[in-house]
Amino acid sequence: MAEQGEDPREVPWHPRHAKRVLGHDAAAAQVMKAFGAGKPHHAWLLHGPKGIGKATLAYSLAGQILGGSEKSRHWIEAKAHPDLFVLERQLNDSKPARLRAEISVDDARGLAGFFARTASGNWRVALVDAADDLNGESANAILKLVEEPPPKALIFLISHQPGKLLRTLKSRCLRLPLAPLADNNVRSVINALPLEEQPEPQQLERAVTQSQGSPGQVLALLTSAGARAFADFERLGRLKPADMIAIASQLAGKGVGPDEFMIFTGLLLEWLANQARAKASAPLAEAHQKISEAARVAQGFNLDRKQATLAQLELINDALKAS
Predict the structure, then answer these.
(1) Is CATH 3.40.50.300 the right assignment for the domain spanning 15-177?
(2) Rounded Cα gap, residues 172 and 31, in angstroms
(3) Sheet with 124-129: strands ordered across
């Protein structure tokens, strides 16, 4: 877990450190075939469910396009390659620092500055991770580059929800859809990661089954505070007020990122849906709807996650009593 002020994305298994890409051979071959022909499309939209390896593939392709040497790979891993620009959300100035909700227009304009410089090699590559984080202004700044690309420049835009992207931006990109991984590839990805603790086989199998082909989701289920909080909820069953406070407290405080709340909520909603179906319970189904809507509001307005979690648990307790 990141310390105060550190970027929570900076983990040993960040996509730029991956030594191989599993499950996306056809997509990789399509890009490299176009590149080998000498006239690749300048903007590619890599889209598919979150956590399936889109960024891993983009970093791998960037490494090959920028020469594929050991030196080049080390530069990419160190975030120091002069011909690679990664546009992503930045940390804000709060204490502790948190990731900004969006990619700002100033950061997007930095990409134009990058392409205005002379390349140290032959090509320049930019990764937008993720394009979903662009706001209206920053999306339009990227659109100008995509409409009038500089020579010898490639842009890889990563998207988990392409339907929400600026339509004109999507229309200028060559779309590269990526599918969820097969379970055997998900296991291979997880087993190859430098995790501090390797998961128990039964724990891993459960996470793989729930992941829908996403190694990123497996990691969230195995290592996150949200997953641990849900495990406590599932183990305790009917909750006392002290139990609710203990669970909610795990999703707030220093070093706990906002994604933990959504991981917990996702697992909670899945559990609630299964319970509602099994018991044919209208109160549980109604609680599912209320929790889903309230979670979107809490996330969108950055509301207190502890209070939001307590409200979720109280709704479930009330629904269970009414079932």
Answers:
(1) yes
(2) 16
(3) 84-87, 124-129, 153-159, 43-47, 174-177
The reported pTM is: 0.79
Residue pLDDT tens, the chain, 323 long: 444 457 888 999 999 999 999 999 999 999 999 999 988 999 999 999 999 999 999 999 999 999 999 999 999 999 999 999 999 999 988 877 788 989 999 999 999 999 999 999 999 999 999 999 999 999 999 999 999 999 999 999 999 999 999 999 999 999 999 999 999 999 999 999 999 888 889 889 989 988 999 999 999 888 889 988 998 999 998 899 999 999 999 998 877 877 899 889 988 998 999 999 999 999 999 999 999 999 989 988 888 999 999 999 999 999 999 98
User: What is the DSSP secondary-structure string of 4-48?
Assistant: TTS-TT--TT-GGG-S---S-HHHHHHHHHHHHTT---SEEEEES
Is the separation of the CB atoms in 255 and 97 below 8 Å? no
Residue type, 6: E
Q: Residue 50: which of 192, 191, 220, 184 has the closest Cα?
A: 220
Residue with tokens 């020469």: 67
Which amino acid is residue 138, in one-letter code? Answer: S
Question: Please, what is the Cα angle at 192 between 188 and 197, to 5 degrees?
Answer: 115
Strand-pair category, 153-159 with 43-47: parallel
Closest among 187, 250, 249 to 219, alpha carbons compared:
187
Token pair listed for 260: 């933990």
Q: Residue 103 forms beta bridges with which residues?
A: 134
273 and 288 Cβ atoms separated by less than 8 Å: yes
Q: Which of 73, 135, 125 is nearest to 104 (CA)?
A: 135
